[in-house]
From TrEMBL:
Region (Disordered): 260-284
InterPro entries reported for this sequence: Ergot_Alk_Oxidoreductase (IPR051604), NAD(P)-bd_dom_sf (IPR036291), NmrA-like (IPR008030)
Lineage: Bacteria, Bacillati, Actinomycetota, Actinomycetes, Kitasatosporales
Record's protein name: NAD(P)H-binding protein
Residue ranges of every copy of the NmrA-like domain listed in the record: 128-251
Domain of life, source organism: Bacteria
Amino acid sequence: MTSAGTVLVTGATATTGSRTAARLVAAGHRVRAAGRRGAALPGAQPVRFDWYDPATHDAALTGTDRVHLVPPVGDPDPAAVMLPFLERARALGVRRAVLLSSSAVPAGGPAVGQVHQVLPSLFDEWAVLRPSWFMQNFTGAHLHATTIRATGTFATATGDGRVAYVDADDIAAVALHALTDTDAPNTDLVLTGPEALTHDDVATILTEVTGRPVTHHRLTVAEVRHRLTESAGIPPQFAALLADMDHAIAEGAENRTTDTVHRLTGHPPNDLRTAMARETGRGL
């Protein structure tokens, strides 16, 4: 790994952004932790940053040579704000950009897929992290986690479809390498856990780990869309995108595993039991 330069981490208080910033600091790299009020993370320089306020962009970018991009949450068209930012980043001397996307969204696909498609034309050094769904969706503030805590249930329209959930700690470990290895990946990296599970399997594992019954309820795509809009307050366009992803899972789109975590970090990805046992101490 190289130790030169400064890394700007957007979304530095988010699930993967906070973990990535912490790993960068621990490895001895200079880090700017970006958030709307600055992100107070040990060892990092807090910097105020808002995707929707271009007046915050130059100060965050000046003196930065690498940037970790966590897209604005819930925006169905993040390219509208991200692409002008990335053009400005290149003009100010950023040489490497690592984008957090999704295994469900290819280059040129909806939402962040539009940013993925353009990224290689903006930077000679780049990577797109395309993780499967996060194991941390069952902890913290995610809708699945909050309904599990409140009712012992969670609901999807995935049917018998399988997902190789990935630990956010493993995503951050890959991000560290993508940002700091001497040679940039210059490709997209699909990140998964070690096994593809149905959501009934997930419920069984959560029951075993927590000692509390957890049940997976099966909904239709329309029911999921309504639930996300009415109960979670998610904008209809983005709720429809998420519901359609459930349908894609039901059709087998996420039934795969990759060796990317092991290949880039040297350690196998954590399984769901391991991650949930660790996260239980954080308030599952």
